[in-house]
Structures are given as C-alpha cells and as structure tokens.
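Q: Give me the 3D complex with nicotinamide-adenine-dinucleotide.
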Amino acid sequence: MSDNGILIVTEDDCKQLMDSGAAFDAVRDIFGRMASGEARNFPVVREAIGHADALYGFKSGFDRSSMTLGVKGGGYWPGNMAQGLTNHQSTVCLFDPDTGRLSALVGGNYLTAIRTAAASAVSIATLSRENSTVLGMIGAGHQAGFQLRAAAEQRDFEKVIAWNYHPEYLPNLGKVAEEVGLPFEAATIEQVCVQADVIITITSSFAPLLMNDWIRPGTHIACMGTDTRGKQEVESKLVASAKVFTDEIDQSTSIGEAQHAFAEGLITKDRITPLGDVINGTHPGRSDDDDITLFDSTGVGLQDLAVAGVAARKAMDAGNAQTIQIG
Ligand code: NAD
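A: Here is the predicted complex, encoded as structure tokens.
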C-alpha cells in the first residue's frame, strides 16, 4: 500500500473517505469475485475469551484481482457502552500479498457498519422489485440507521414502517428516516410484513420474529442480524419457501438465517445461491414479481477487506496519509 511504512487510516479518516456509494461498489464487486472464485474467505476464528464477557475473533481472506490480503480482528465487548465506547470493536490489517509485510492499519468500526449496510443494499438493488415503495425495518439498534440510509438509495421508497423489541429505540431510527425524507411509522411485526415490499431484519434475536404466513408474494427480505449459531429472525418455514441468496453458503447453513431450516431438513445447500452469481449474471435472481426473495447475510471477511482496501487507497490518494515505520 505504501512504500514508506505502514499507512494509518483512523476511524475519523474512514468517515471522511468512505460513503455508502463507495461501500456499495466495493461490496457488490467483492461478492461477484467471491462467486467467480477470484476471491476467497479463510476460516473464521471466534472465541469467548473468558474475560469481560467478550467474543473475540478474526475474519480474513485474499482477493487476487485487487491484490487485497488482510484480516479484521476484534469482536464484541458488551460492557463497552457503559464506558462510552461502541460494543463492537474491530481493526483491519492489510498486508502486501507479494511480501507479507503489514501495509495498512484501518479502523474497522465505521467500516463494519457501512459494509453491512452495503450488503443489504446490494441485495435490494439486485433482488427486490423495482416498484417497491414500502421499506420495513425490524430492529433499531446501532446498525439499523446505516441499513435504512443505504436501502433508501436503492428504490423510490415512499415510507418506512418499523418494529423494534425495545420500542424506545424507534425515535432514533425515525430521525434517520426524516433525514432521508421518508415518512416513518411504528407498527407491529405483522403490520410490517403485510405492508412492506422490502424488509430488513437487523436484530440480535434468538427466536423467529417474521412468520411465513405474514409475508406477501413479491417481498424481498434482507436478513442481516443472524451471524452466529443459535440466532434467528425468520421462521424456518419462510426460509424454506423463499428463493434464498447469501454471501457464503457454508456460513448460511451454519451461522446464518438458513441454519435452522437446514438443521430441520427443510432446505439443502443446492437451494441457496451466492448473491455474486446474480451480480455476475450467471443466475437470474428474481424471475417473477411474486417470488419471495431472501438474502441471508452472514458477514464475511472479504467485505471488510474490500472497504478497508478502498479506504486505504483513498487515504493514499488524498496525499496526507499518516505512516509509521516498524523496521
Ligand atoms: P445492537 O445491539 O445495537 O442492536 C440490537 C437490536 O436487536 C436492537 O434493535 C434491539 O432492540 C434488538 N433486540 C435485542 N434483543 C432482542 C430480542 N430478544 N428479540 C428481538 N430483537 C432484539 O446491535 P447492532 O450492532 O445493531 O447489530 C444487530 C445484529 O446484527 C446483531 O445480531 C449483530 O451481530 C448483527 N450483525 C450482522 C452483520 C452481518 O454482516 N450480517 C454485521 C454486523 C452485525
């Protein structure tokens, strides 16, 4: 990345350099390259460290076409909020694929939020009906605002309808809707399902929230919250009856939303399609206005490396990048 040492890209730099459009392009392209085999995620490490209730891990991979090699390290520290810090903490290390030297350290917190929002936005752009007008939000935590903003850029939505387990969080999400110029309505989960053309689920739920019978034909659902064994946002019958797309099939059936339908024998891996196949034009995606499409986002390291790589290149191009030497 830099011939003169290790490039430092801070959280503030990332906020200035990266917007939702740059994240969208990076995530769409990396999903395509994962599907074509040019880019590969490596096995994820995730462990409870037995201290501070923390979950700690690494996600890594290599994208040959952009020569991006690296790892995102960090995890979840539930007590951070009380100290005025974000519970999710992460940093991306990028390495020179020719030599293995560390080339950049990039703050990962803001990038994680925009790469996750970009994943659902790419699914909406790729799979939802073009005439979708109602956006449904299930969840109103840290990620939800980023999700709403990125989704609003994909379709001409006319309103947002939302539910959250903690209703007191909803006004914050309402402010984001107002900022992007959309009317906002709080509702029950069933009302969200019955009215919305596109639904984003972004909660830490361990029990199904969306029921199969509530979903109308033609709906697109971006399941963003389930990224760990045991979590669940959608009834397994709904996963089984939808056209299912994902970032990584093996993660979808082990830690993603499809894990329950898969364990119950309601879906097989060959019924789950990499979203990158639709991006690359090797799968048609939605083929009928009545299809129910479901994107099972499990979160992959290459998404983080793709946005971190773009942020690092933009920092270099801006000409005022900080670097350090470690010999
Ligand atoms: P957060 O802690 O800020 O928000 C959690 C949300 O879940 C809130 O809306 C909260 O009200 C809701 N919630 C809490 N308990 C619930 C329950 N029992 N039933 C239903 N809802 C409940 O978290 P966040 O940073 O907004 O992340 C939300 C989820 O997205 C988490 O599960 C996180 O692991 C996941 N995530 C996924 C990806 C990905 O790539 N797919 C990336 C980042 C985060």
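A quick observation: Residues 109-127 form the longest helix (19 residues).
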